[in-house]
Amino acid sequence: MAGRKITKELSEEEKKGMPLYSIGVVSELLGTTDQTLRLYEKHGLITPARRNKNRFYSENDIKWLRCVRDLIHVKKISI
Question: What pTM was estimated for this model as a whole?
Answer without folding.
Answer: 0.83
